[in-house]
Design goal:
- This protein has about 550 residues and is mostly helical.
- Among the domains are: about 80 residues, no CATH class; about 160 residues, no CATH class.
- The protein contains 31 helices and four strands.
- The strands form two sheets. The chain has a two-stranded antiparallel sheet. Strands 2-3 form a two-stranded antiparallel sheet.
- A hairpin with a 2-residue loop joins strand 2 and strand 3.
- Helix 6 runs parallel beside helix 8, helix 26 packs across helix 27 and helix 27 runs antiparallel to helix 28.
- The longest helix has 25 residues.
- It starts with a helix and ends in a 5-residue tail after the last helix.
Length: about 550
């Protein structure tokens, strides 16, 4: 068993970050002069889990007297290769920064080893080195950072630019030059340099008005990495968003949907705003996002899958949800209707059916607008509960015009009631209990219920319509003709088959029962029943699927005023 394996086994049985274990292990390594990083590298190469080994290294790292830069470089090389694209990648940065702050000479040696070995992938570890030097000696650290962002090497220059945003505060004599370097860096054609400069600029923009203006300008940059760095900083401080931040978020809504990280940051920001009740801001951002998408993108990407946190925020904020539904249904842009359709599917499967139209928006509608939004509800809402709740919410308008009331009644009887007769009647009876007597809403519900009940009686009467019952004698003749044709077919098959020809034919005496043979034995005889053929109508809803689909298609494509 290797030394690392033993340490991992012991550490696993102890409490998290057990100080006695850390002290005793580091004392043993220091007394024996063992190179922990070299041993750890060999252990990982032999098959030990990189994350457990790295965790062990970070526990003991600060207590070791001597860490050879070359050994650390070897371990970092293996570590970065094994943890690429993992969230834990970079967990050694903080231990390195703390050690650098206590040992400048070791920091210079580590920097030299990384740079002279031309380890481009490890240049990012120059970041904790320079920051650690700044923690110990501000002037020394600033000098190193200044040298880095002035370097001709693009990767080292990017490290220097990113350091500016992580320093916390800049000396007065250093500020002007730093701001100028950042403004120049964000316009670089080198993606890493531009992204690093955008990162620092987004953290320092409040210290210089010019940086603030540049940040807004960069939100429209064609570089996805630059825009993501800006959005990420807004995401991290979403508790304190100002008007510029909101404008930048809107600008950033136009991006390639393949970059899921941008979507995730947007989702978190929208969710936070929704929880705080910023209805108009959330509506503006989501509207901007839909407007920035093509019809093909809207169909390809499911809005509810991309913004799960935002959807949960909408479901908790009914005012916001109702406003979005009303605004987007009333839009003449098909993209909003397609997004809503997916939202309705989502909230329907999660049993959230209490959505309604926003009465404040409805109060500004003309009659043609009511007709338009009702048609869109019938075209894009497939869930019965959601669709009827949206339609019924129109009856809560005050004042409610006679024409609008007649429109709602027509929809309930001729469209929703046609395909969901029983459900519609039951729903309206429930609403009637809550409606105030003497109001237009109460009258509409009463009249609609009476019409639907009459229609139900007419359909029920068809159960007793003799014209729809097949003639028994004719059915018997059809059955006999089928049996005769099967007997003829079997006889022909028996004549042609060598196998069937080996069997002898035995006529079965017809009776009033039949036997079943199962698991080697005959079951008790089962009496044969008299089979009848009749047409039975459903007791609940009689749905014309084809007619309903054609009707829905027409409502989806109809224009306002048609």
């Amino acid at each position: 068993m290797s030394f690392i394996t033993e340490l991992l086994a012991i550490e696993h049985m102890l409490p998290f970050q057990d100080q006695v274990f850390i002290d005793s292990t580091s004392d043993f390594l220091n007394c024996q002069g063992l190179d922990l990083l070299h041993i750890a590298s060999e252990a990982v190469t032999s098959g030990q889990d990189i994350f457990r080994v790295a965790h062990l290294v970070t526990l003991i790292f600060a207590k070791l007297n001597d860490i050879a830069p070359s050994s650390l470089l070897g371990f970092l090389t293996i570590y970065d290769e094994k943890t690429k694209n993992d969230l834990m990648n970079g967990q050694l940065a903080e231990p390195i920064r703390k050690r650098v702050a206590c040992n400048k000479e070791w920091a210079f040696n580590l920097e030299e080893v990384i740079v002279t070995n031309d380890c481009k992938g490890l240049y990012r570890y120059l970041l904790p080195i320079y920051l650690g030097l700044s923690d110990a000696d501000r002037s020394c650290g600033f000098s190193k950072i200044q040298s880095a962002y002035s370097s001709e090497d693009h990767d080292i220059k990017a490290v220097g630019l990113r350091c500016l945003g992580l320093l916390g505060s800049l000396p007065d004599h250093f500020r002007g030059e730093s701001f100028a370097v950042l403004i120049e860096g964000v316009d670089s054609t080198h993606e890493t340099i531009a992204a690093s400069a955008a990162f620092s600029l987004s953290r320092l923009y409040q210290e210089c008005p010019e940086l603030g203006r540049k940040r807004i300008e960069l939100s429209k940059s064609p570089s996805t990495h630059v825009r993501f760095e800006i959005l990420k900083q807004i995401h991290l401080r979403q508790e304190m968003l100002d008007s510029d931040d909101i404008q930048i978020v809107k600008n950033l809504c136009a991006y390639d949907l393949k970059y899921r990280a941008i979507t995730n940051s947007l989702d978190a920001i929208i969710h936070s705003l929704a929880n705080k009740g910023h209805t108009e801001i959330v509506l503006d951002i989501l509207t901007e996002w839909v407007t920035a998408r093509s019809h093909e993108e809207i169909k390809q990407y499911d809005f509810t899958d991309m913004f799960p946190c935002s959807i949960s925020g909408l479901l908790e904020n009914h005012t916001l949800l109702n406003r979005i539904i009303t605004e987007w249904l009333n839009s003449e842009d098909l993209r909003f209707h397609l997004v809503l359709e997916k939202m309705f599917f989502f909230i329907g499967t999660h049993n959230v059916t209490n959505a309604s139209l926003d009465l404040e928006i409805l109060n500004s509608f003309q009659y043609d607008d009511f007709v338009y939004i009702v048609r869109k509800i019938l075209g894009f809402v497939h869930n019965f509960e959601i669709s009827i709740n949206l339609i019924l919410s129109v009856l809560d308008l005050s004042p409610l015009s006679h024409d609008t009331a007649c429109l709602v009644k027509s929809v309930l009887t001729e469209h929703i009631g046609t395909n969901h007769l029983v459900q519609t009647t039951e729903k309206l009876n429930q609403e009637l209990l809550k409606a105030t007597v003497g109001t237009i809403k109460n009258a509409v519900l009463n009249e609609t219920i009476l019409e639907l009940q009459q229609r139900r009686k007419e359909i029920s009467a068809l159960d007793h319509c003799n014209e729809l019952i097949p003639d028994p004698d004719h059915q018997t003749k059809l059955d006999k003709a089928l049996r005769d044709s099967l007997n003829i077919a079997f006889a022909k098959a028996r004549e042609k088959s060598v196998l069937l020809g080996l069997f002898s034919r035995v006529n079965i005496i017809e009776g009033s029962a039949f036997f079943s043979f199962l698991n080697g034995e005959y079951r008790d005889p089962s009496p044969m029943q008299q089979f009848s053929h009749e047409l039975v109508f459903p007791k609940n809803d009689l749905i014309d699927e084809v007619g309903a689909s054609l009707e829905r298609f027409n409502f989806r494509i109809v224009k306002r005023g048609e």
